[in-house]
Amino acid sequence: MDPRRPRNVWQALSRPGYLLSPWPWRAAAYLLTGAVTGAFVLVGLGVWVTTGGVLAVVLVGLPLVAVTVFAGLPFAAFERRRLRLVDGGRVPSAHIEPRTPGVRAWLITRLRERATWRELGHTLLTACLLWPAEALLLTLALVSPLVMIATPLLLATVGGGREVKVLKVWTVTGQPMACGAAALGVLLLAAGAYALGAAAGARAALTRRLVAPPDGDAQTRVVELTRSRARLVDAFEAERRRIERDLHDGAQQRLVALTITLGLARLDAPPGGPLAAQLTRAHEEAGAALAELRELIHGIHPKVLADYGLEAAVADAADRSPVPVDVEFALPAVRLPQAVEAAAYFVVREALANVARHSGAARARVRAEFEEFRDGRRLVLEVTDDGRGGADGARGTGLTGLADRVSVLDGRLSVTSPPGGPTLLRVEIPCEPSAPDKPSRQSETACA
């Protein structure tokens, strides 16, 4: 594409050859289609709302009236296509795709979007105000000058060569006056072409602002980035489970077999000899390696989390903690998504480790429940202790790592830890429970 070629009507207006280019006619076509579409939308909305209002007495019309909220969606889609007449740039949609399929998810997503309400406002503005203004401008800037240019022809035909009334306000007698009117019409048509271009540019800018905001591309990229981040989290958790399974079924079983073999060899070796001492040391080293491997496997992805869910895994972590921990779970009997369960578990485990290492607490408490927020339900975890307080992520207590882990799932982490305690760590992760838990590991819920 030639970089010197105008890409929209505003650029064309500043070029010397504007009047001889297609842009005046494209601007006129844009305003004309806008006026026709606006009138059609006005009639359609009037009939639709009136029908819904009449049928509302039998409750049938209430859904019809409610659907009016989405009237801006098809009209905005048409407007984005119509913008190509005067704006050659890409016109993206401001909407995002629902995270889950289904009509309910689509309705909830659209009702929560600002774009839906902007497009409804644009539709009402077009139907009530913009299309009459466009029709009036077309009449003054295009139709009237063309009628004046045709004055000599009208005088010769309709006026019989004697007189003709132009635009019903100006009586022209004789061809000299008719030619003067035609010359004036040419000048007015040239000025009207610029007026049409400016009006079309302003109308297109308003439309783009309402149905395709400037940050539409950025919003699309943010949504895609969020989804790709969620996919990476799922892949990371799947890889953790694979490593845990391979270590459990492979290296751990070999170490168990080696430990058993060394134990049997110790029984067969002559007692008190150097061979028995070496076998004893080898057996003890194998046992220690097996214990370390089991602890490593548990740290990668504990089997109790995969098999029994978050509550059982947190209870297991509480039992392993050197500080007594009270566990309070007020969650329905559901399995959360694997990424949410893993993040919540490792946050609790790291928080309990921090309590044991840094707080000097005599007791801790872990509480979990679902709470309602404006953007949906969230899993809320709270870890409290009666320690000395003063927790600070800048001092290497692991709080920064916990916040990063939670933020990947679009969650939030906050810490309240005044000097002298107590310390409260609160985590909120978007998550909607959906179905009762089943024996299968595949039972999950849908996250918000």
Q: How does this model look, in words?
A:
The longest helix has 53 residues, at 216-268. The strands form two sheets. A five-stranded mixed β-sheet has the order 3-4-5-7-6, with helices on one face. It has three domains: 9-214, no CATH class; 218-301; 308-448, Histidine kinase-like ATPase, C-terminal domain (Heat Shock Protein 90, 2-Layer Sandwich). It has helices at 9-13, 23-55, 61-67, 72-82, 103-112, 114-149, 151-157, 175-211, 216-268, 274-300, 303-308, 310-320, 338-359, 399-407, and strands spanning 163-166, 170-173, 325-330, 364-373, 376-385, 412-416, 423-430. By secondary structure, it is an alpha+beta fold.
Q: Which tags fit this structure?
A:
single chain, Heat Shock Protein 90, 3 domains, five-stranded mixed beta sheet, elongated, disordered C terminus
Largest sheet: 5 strands, mixed
Strand tally is: 7
Helix content: 55-70%
Strand composition percent: 5-15%
Structural Rg:
37 Å
Give the overall average pLDDT: 79
Would you list the SSEs in sequence order as H and E? HHHHHHHEEHHHHHEHEEHEE
Structural class: alpha+beta
Give the overall form.
elongated
Structure annotation, total helices: 14
Point out poorly predicted stretches.
434-448
